[in-house]
Design a protein that fits this description.
Chain A: It holds the Pfam family Pyr_redox_2. The complex is a heterotrimer of chains A (482), B (372) and C (85). Chain A has three domains: 8-137 and 277-347, FAD/NAD(P)-binding domain (3-Layer(bba) Sandwich), CATH 3.50.50; 140-274, FAD/NAD(P)-binding domain; 385-453, BFD-like [2Fe-2S]-binding domain (Arc Repressor Mutant, subunit A, Orthogonal Bundle). Chain A is built from 15 helices and 22 strands. Chain A has helices at 17-28, 74-92, 154-164, 179-190, 206-212, 220-235, 281-285, 326-343, 349-367, 370-376, 381-384, 401-410, 415-422, 435-446, 467-471; strands at residues 8-13, 33-36, 96-99, 102-108, 113-118, 121-132, 136-138, 151-153, 172-176, 196-200, 239-241, 248-250, 257-260, 263-266, 269-273, 276-278, 290-293, 298-301, 314-316, 392-394, 399-400, 465-466. Chain B is built from nine helices and 18 strands. In chain B, the strands form five sheets. Chain B has a six-stranded mixed sheet, covered by helices on one side. The longest helix of chain B is centred in the first third of the chain and has 25 residues, at 59-83. The termini of chain B are far apart. Chain C has one domain: 2Fe-2S iron-sulphur cluster binding domain, sarcosine oxidase, alpha subunit, N-terminal domain (Ubiquitin-like (UB roll)). In chain C, a hairpin with a 6-residue loop joins strand 3 and strand 4 (40-41). Chain C has one helix spanning 19-26; strands at 2-6, 9-13, 32-33, 40-41, 54-57, 60-64, 75-77, 79-80. The chains are: A alpha/beta (482), B alpha+beta (372), C mainly beta (85). Chains in contact: A-B, A-C, B-C.
Amino acid sequence: MTPGPAPRDLAIVGAGPAGMAAAVEADALGLSVVLIDEQPTPGGQVFRAVEAGAGDPAGDPAGDSAGDPALAGEDRDSGARLVAGLRAAIGASARLDYRPRTALWHLDADAGLLSTVTDGAAGEVAARRVLLATGAQERPVPIPGWTLPGVLTAGAAQILLKTAGAVPEGAAAIAGQGPLCWLLAVQLLRAGAGPLTLLETSSGGALPRALRAGGLWSGRAALRKGVSLMREARARGLRVVPGVRGLRAGGDSRLRRVAWEGGTLECGTLLLHEGVIPSTHVTRALGLAHEWDAGQFCWRPRLDAWGATSHPAIAVAGDGGGIGGWEAAVAAGRLAALDAAYRLGRLDAAARDARAAPPRAALRRALALRPFLDRLYAPSPAVLAPPDDATVVCRCEEVTAGQVRAAARLGATGPNQVKAFLRAGMGPCQGRLCGTTVAALVAGARGIPVPAAGVLRPRAPYRPVTVGALAGPLPEADDPIG
Amino acid sequence: MSATDAIVVGGGLVGVAIAHGLQRQGLAVALLDEGDVAHRASRGNFGLVWVQSKGIGAPHYQRWTRDSAAEWPALAATLREATGIDPALHQPGGVTLCLSEAELAERAESLARLRRESGNAGYEYRLLDPAALREMLPGLGPRVVGGSYTPYDGHASPLHLLRALHTAFRDAGGAYHPNTTVATLRPAPHDFAVEAAGTTLRAPRLVLAAGLGNAALAPLVGLSAPLRPERGQIIVTERAAPVLPMPLVNIRQTGEGSLLIGNSAEEAGFDTLTQSPPVLRDMARRAVLCFPWIAGLNVVRAWSALRVMSPDGRPIYDQSERFPGAFLATCHSGVTLAAAHARLLAPMIAAGALTTAMSPFGAGRFDVQNAA
Amino acid sequence: MVEVLVGDRPVLVPAGASAAAAVLLSDLPAIRTTPVSGAPRLPYCMMGVCFDCLAEIDGVPNRQACMVTVAPGMRIAPQRGVRAA
């Protein structure tokens, strides 16, 4: 192999709030930065297509759905400012290399070598440090019928609204819990969606438990925002059904109705949401140390106060390190950039710590309401481990909860053996949507806590890459073949 | 005191195949296994039932492999009948493709030698030119200069096989102990006590089938297992409609439709966590040169697993002289040899001794004193 | 707006939207049937996680439609079971 170009100081994976903030901060500190992102424009999932409404010349005015008043709000403006800040830094600095439409498919952590794929072509970039800012995914909500066409995640509906200005036709239901359900309801109703029902799955005693967890005083601004959202949603005609249990989606080849204990609703669209969990696909594939977050019922990489992981060259910032929302992600991105400069010898400890004071304060503020929300919106046991044996848990390979329980009885002690026995986690999504459910089902069958059942170990490629892209240019006819 | 006739240490393909075979001899068997993330060669197996190229310079190994391939249909039928799980055995013969004249010449020489060493058994093979190969395999690449075919080769699903063997073992009343690392092992002739996970198991027979773990366990019962890990990587593509009618040594299509690309070998210690893009590139390159249409398929997963390698790469089957009743079985061909382990080796262990024909497989062959 | 073909239906979608959004706007009953049971599927997560939006896009099978931005004249075709090799 020929030696590649000199390694960058810092490679950042993901151009959401954490990645954007880290890139701008690291560039300002004099580091050479490569920022790779799967999307065509920066913003991440939360600020997807935020530029299109901000008068960006690259945006198509005719397709300006992001300018939809349904999406207006202070968060949107903040997102647009973040993206504009990144664009300005990219324009002003030759050290900041932004690569959109680029996915990471392998990371050699020890060598600092990132294998990427852009528009189907494989590439490589070397870096002395790597910051993973790969964000979150929605928690899987395996209910009977959730594979039917017409059932989507709430996040999917938000993306459709942001990027295509689309709302469901006819009657629709949002089912689940968490602030996004209310935000989405308001956004859909503002945009002219038809009759909308919110099926709330939060348990009755959630509010008192949540109030005991505290954090309300410093987080009261966000709480006030939540309360006003709820008020607006009801004023716009949202029907709310509280305490929903036993949710199921029905229909033959597409969704026709949603049923729950004591109720049923004819509708063509069901939007599921039980909160978000860190996307740990890459951090798990790398074998980094993780810890179980008992408050959020999910795994997250073990991080220090700067986002440093158990690998000396790898850090994590944003929701991928634990759910905190976009403001926490921005703060964590800046802290990780400061620590990168320190570890690369560009900043001494005192300077790093001094500069860290504002983002640390911002992080505290952003996380103040978190314990409250975690208590309020703790997922029910049925969401973590579906009780009905016929429920599909692995959407790709169509493996049911009952099959997983049977494999556990056969002696499968965790999701990796279940994968070997049943192919759960072997399909195109590589266990992103079934790994946590399978572990919870095994734990239930074995009578052990969920974290004791272990986790699915993902493998490269983290993103699909063709055999041809892996092979690269073929050797000449008379060259020896490896 | 439980009435256990044999303890098998190791719940991978080697251990569970032997345990299943011992049960068929009427023995009550306890099977000790590791947990969810063991260095499990069985889960990383390519899935060939492969004869071609096995046992050059070792006629006993060639014969053992041939015997296993011949016993495989009976094993598959037994498991299908007992468990309803089909190990997806197909033995249409298999092909090795050559991408240069040098590769082809080496192939021809190996097969000629295997035939010479086959004794009375005979050894059927054909060397094929590209035109003949094109008749057998769709979309062959222009860089293929020739290849070899033997009718003995085939493939199966290692994962179906593992699940079928475990299901058969449990349904026949076997005692499966997962998450169980051997803490202490107290040997006495025909009386072995294994303490593991807080319980003690006793039995007159002990079979060590713990893969690389055998290296540490064997000396405790007067045996030796000089083993090292050799890393192999495998690329698996998305499912595709059936296209390959037979397996190749480096490419096969599974019953589900995925193409598996394999046949790499590296020295990488016990690291199965990482994949190596340069190795993956070379494997992918070779696959694309064999079949250009493979280039368009998406890779869904690549993985690394450890082959259990002895110094000469062949299996070790041994019995303890100091502690009669203790046996050792270890190899890197858990699928190919599954039928031999269940149907040929297990009866010997049940009877109390390996036959003399098995003596070339003993670890004594690695002793310096015997090497002269 | 951009015009694309979903199956054989022309669909107008805002620039910057994904092929998966075009599929949902087209009212197609399913973008694929699964290789295992033949069950119909439409996009589910829209953010690259679930792979339920796999479609043949401009002749290339099994592309994640939610990760592909629409372009004028793009052909988005449904898939039945496994792809051809």
